[in-house]
Design brief:
By secondary structure, the chain is an alpha+beta fold. It folds into 3 domains: 143 residues, Heat Shock Protein 90; 96 residues, Actin, Chain A, domain 4, CATH 3.90.640; 121 residues, Immunoglobulin-like.
């Protein structure tokens, strides 16, 4: 399976400019052969676990759009992550998930789903730029980016969280999250009702937990006051409104429910997230949705990709970060889980390395290898390799080069942060 498999989506989603600078809208028809998973279809009690790992390739569709005059100024940056799921032993489920995600991409691009879409944003940016230019005022470029994060991936569940970060003027950008949780065996989009025998009991448990957290956890101390002061609704109604489709997910340790910006807190509170562990949900969530147990652990190493007779025969996939870069081989000795390749940005104000872009993900890699094509920058690393061991312990490494002989290295995140 190659990275280029994700290019299939460009048949339905093409950035195109007319001669006058206007942008054609994406097709309004659903691509032939696609069918959105039916969230209302009952899920079987048992699911067949694929033997091969679940793999995601992420293609970044991004473009800058320039002002209509001769200034060459960027007035809009627009883009999104296009995800391609691959399961060797279960292509039917992978196809169903991919078809659903392709429709979501088109809805985001066209603005027929949540958000304004490319054409409307470009029109707004052009109008604002023209007005600012006429009045001699400053203009800040618009932006709208939609990025994906894999919250959980195994033979039972694929949980994706998409974040849209947009700026259309004002004091700061805005962002929002939406989650999609799939049955990895069937490809079906799951609802809260699919998780349990008694949806009402599950919802009551979530609501009760949120109330307990507001009373006991200092992280939430400003929420009750915000609801009372700024929302024309009782606290119970505001909290229960969070228990809805698209605002929950299953990760490795439990179930998370989250808000929108300003929904129950200030901008400083951000997206308010409540997390219940699987232990706290014992008896409420069907066992088939609990994480898969792992017994074997391993480690990773990296080296330049060898060619010819010395080439590795155990390559699972290739991910291209920069087509102008060199090729490397990331090898798993033993088993590693939730293996993720992502771009990071370093912040010196205590944040450290912050993930900005997911490129590739595998639910498991056992005694296998991944080809990575990238440019290793001078100075602070920008590419992170992250995985879990069998105990669920997270390991994060940054890809860099030796200052002595240029040998490619994997440096632990904590060590790199300390140096930075």
């Amino acid at each position: 399976m190659k990275k280029t498999i994700a290019l299939i989506l460009t048949l339905t989603l093409v950035f195109s400019l007319c001669a006058c600078g206007a942008i054609e809208a994406a097709p309004t028809e659903t691509p032939a052969g696609t069918q959105q998973p039916d969230a209302g279809t009952p899920v079987p009690e048992t699911t067949a676990a694929p033997d091969a790992p679940l793999v995601l390739n992420v293609a970044i569709r991004a473009q800058d759009y320039l002002a209509p005059d001769e200034s060459g100024q960027t007035i809009l940056s627009f883009g999104y992550d296009s995800v391609q799921v691959y399961m060797k032993t279960n292509p039917e489920a992978a196809e169903k998930i991919n078809n659903f995600l392709a429709v979501e991409d088109e809805l985001f691009y066209s603005g027929r789903g949540e958000g304004d879409g490319l054409n409307a944003l470009l029109e707004q940016a052009t109008d604002q730029f023209t007005y600012a230019h006429h009045e001699g005022a400053s203009f800040s470029s618009f932006s709208c980016m939609r990025n994906v994060n894999v919250e959980r991936g195994d033979s039972r569940i694929l949980a994706l969280r998409y974040r849209v970060n947009s700026f259309t003027g004002g004091a700061h950008s805005l962002y929002s999250d939406r989650a999609y949780v799939f049955d990895a065996a069937s490809g079906q989009l799951l609802t809260l009702a699919d998780l349990c025998e008694d949806k009402e009991a599950l919802e009551e448990k979530i609501y009760s937990y949120m109330c307990d957290q507001l009373a006991a956890d200092l992280r939430y101390q400003s929420i009750p006051e915000y609801i009372e002061k700024f929302l024309d609704t009782p606290q119970e109604d505001a909290l229960r409104a969070l228990i809805r489709e698209g605002a929950w997910l299953l990760d490795e340790t439990g179930l998370a429910v989250f808000s929108d910006i300003y929904e129950i807190g200030s901008f400083a509170d951000g997206i308010v997230r409540f997390h219940l562990s699987y232990e706290e949900l014992d008896g409420l969530i069907r066992e088939q949705w609990l994480p898969v147990d792992h017994t074997e652990s391993g480690s990773v190493s990296i080296e330049p990709l060898r060619q010819g007779e010395n080439a590795r025969k155990d390559l699972l996939d290739k991910v291209t970060i920069d087509p102008a870069g060199s090729n490397y081989c990331l090898y798993a000795d033993g088993s590693v889980y939730d293996l993720t390749v992502l771009t990071v940005r370093y912040f010196s104000d205590g944040v450290g390395f912050y993930p900005t872009e997911t490129h590739w993900y595998a639910s498991e890699l056992t005694n296998g290898a991944l080809q990575i094509q990238t440019v290793i920058p001078e100075g602070m690393p920008s590419l992170m390799i992250r995985y879990l061991d069998a105990e669920g312990q997270a390991h994060s490494f940054l890809m860099t080069e030796s200052g002595k002989d240029g040998t490619v290295l994997l440096v632990e995140e904590a060590s790199a942060t300390a140096i930075g």
